[in-house]
């Protein structure tokens, strides 16, 4: 899940962007580091068009910054990105932007990720996510990133209890069922490998 390159797909006729696949990094930046991103430049409306007909791979991101309530997820190439300001955020799709520093793409951001939760390549539900789904997204992101991920992998009882609680809550969530299934898929490997309940 975490070492696959991010890819952008383009239409072979007009070379406009038709798809993007981004992977979440497992390492979370500290709240202090993430706060430095609050002054990011505004998103420039744009889009992408390829110079030639081929898919494009972006460098794997390794650092996840989570805004309060996980209203925005920002994924960065590495911690060096914090050493200087971002030059631009270029919108490539609704709520998705590429982050530019020193003329290079150094990451991406997704606003309101709960809205876009879906399984496989299905279209996201057009209705707004339920409040419980937003809470469960945050709980799942806690589980799949450090430091809680390390604690789950070390089989610490408190961390395993959290994994069990999140897994059970998602299984019984009646509201926003499609998004709950997407979150179940997100933590499925952890639940299978460490869910000895």
């Amino acid at each position: 899940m975490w070492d696959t390159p991010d890819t952008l797909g383009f239409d072979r006729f007009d070379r406009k962007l038709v798809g993007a696949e981004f992977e979440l990094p497992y390492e979370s930046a500290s709240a202090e580091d993430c706060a430095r991103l609050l002054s990011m430049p505004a998103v420039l409306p744009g889009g992408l068009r390829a110079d030639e007909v081929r898919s494009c791979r972006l460098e794997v991101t390794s650092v996840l910054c989570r805004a309060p309530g996980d209203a925005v997820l920002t994924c960065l190439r590495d911690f060096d990105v914090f050493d200087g300001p971002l030059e631009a955020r270029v919108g490539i799709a609704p709520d998705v932007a590429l982050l530019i520093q020193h003329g290079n793409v150094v990451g991406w951001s997704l606003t309101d990720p709960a809205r876009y939760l879906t399984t496989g390549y299905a279209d996201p539900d057009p209705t707004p996510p339920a409040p419980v789904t937003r809470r469960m997204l945050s709980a799942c992101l806690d589980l799949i990133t450090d430091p809680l991920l390390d604690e789950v992998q070390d089989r610490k009882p408190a961390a395993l209890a959290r994994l069990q609680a999140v897994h059970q809550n998602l299984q019984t969530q009646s509201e926003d069922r499609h998004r709950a299934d997407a979150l179940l898929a997100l933590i499925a490997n952890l639940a299978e490998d460490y869910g000895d309940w």
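The chain has a mean pLDDT of 90. The chain has two domains: 6-111, 116-194.
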